[in-house]
Design a protein that fits this description.
Blueprint: H1 4-10, H2 22-40, H3 44-61, H4 68-75, H5 78-84, H6 99-108, H7 112-119, E1 122-124, E2 131-133, H8 135-143, H9 145-148, H10 154-161, E3 169-170, E4 177-180, E5 183-186, H11 190-206, H12 215-225, E6 240-247, E7 252-260, E8 264-269, E9 275-277, E10 281-283
Antiparallel strand pairs: 1-2, 3-4, 4-5, 6-7, 7-8, 9-10
Length: about 280
């Protein structure tokens, strides 16, 4: 029987599960089949072993051949990359659990805008055609800074993700990223992580209903709330909208970024996701 600890050492969550790059997996699978077919010309049993080992490698590590992203970008058609590639900005999709868990999340899910309005976190502006943070909620956010202002605080991240601090593994990346329960969660900048932690703590103080909202929906609501900050939640710098590019595993994407020059983006989103609103430019 395979040692679970050995599998944990071999497995690479950064390239598997929700973080798996489908185009790279397709290319690796094609290489595995081709290699097995060649080996079969010499020995069918050896070809079967080759195919099994290749499948295990792709399943556990996410790839068979090092440097796969470069090969994928070069040899796979653009239509295949566009069909299967995961956009490098933050995910906004529900978690996969049991049917029972899905039913509970459905019951606890909320209409985000209505929930925030009723809780007193946001309100219509003077013109009535846009939304803004209420003064009371803004004060609650400021009150969280001593406990949630450090983007490297493992305890604060654990509270945000509703897990034990020991279950949080901070990953060595250019942007904030952590692994919990074999899932990698990421933020476009430390300022974005700070914004989420501050707003999460403020919502916990504002309403007891917040903690019953399903985790993935909470994170989605926190992500949207970043666009409501009048200044950078980390350095109080000016928030501006800019254009740029980000790279996924094997593609380059045009994005819009909302943030400050010093601390980086609070939000990154594709132009087609943006909805024009008054005053703020876009609503992601």
């Amino acid at each position: 029987m395979t040692d679970p600890s050995f599998l944990d050492r071999v497995r690479q969550p950064a390239h598997t599960g929700r973080n798996r790059c489908v185009p790279c997996t397709v290319l690796n699978a094609a290489i595995a089949l081709l290699a097995s077919a060649v080996v079969a010309l010499v020995s069918v049993p050896l070809a079967a072993v080759t195919l099994l080992a290749s499948v295990l490698s792709i399943s556990l590590r996410g790839y068979l051949v090092p440097g796969t992203p470069r090969l994928t970008e070069r040899y796979l058609p653009e239509c295949v990359l566009a069909r299967f590639d995961t956009h490098p900005i933050e995910e906004r999709r529900p978690d996969d659990r049991t049917a029972e868990g899905d039913g509970r999340r459905d019951r606890e899910a909320v209409d985000p805008e209505r929930f925030l309005l009723r809780a007193g976190a946001i309100e219509p502006d003077e013109r009535g055609d846009d939304l803004r943070l209420t003064e009371g909620f803004s004060r609650l956010i400021e009150r969280q800074r001593p406990d949630h202002g450090d983007p490297t605080d493992r305890d604060a991240i654990a509270r945000l993700l509703d897990v034990d601090p020991g279950a949080v593994a901070v990953l060595d990346r250019e942007y904030p990223a952590v692994e919990t329960d074999r899932r990698v969660r990421k933020w476009p900048s430390e300022a974005a992580l700070v914004a989420d932690a501050l707003a999460d703590g403020a919502l916990c103080d504002l309403t007891g209903r917040w903690e019953r909202v399903p985790l993935d929906q909470r994170l989605g609501i926190l992500r949207s709330l970043r666009s409501f900050h009048p200044t950078c939640p980390r350095c109080s710098g000016e928030i501006v909208l800019s254009e740029g590019t980000v790279e996924s595993c094997c593609r380059t994407h045009e994005v819009l970024a909302l943030g400050c020059e010093a601390c980086g983006p609070l939000l990154e989103f594709s132009p087609e996701q943006a909805t024009p609103v008054s005053g703020r430019g876009v609503r992601p």
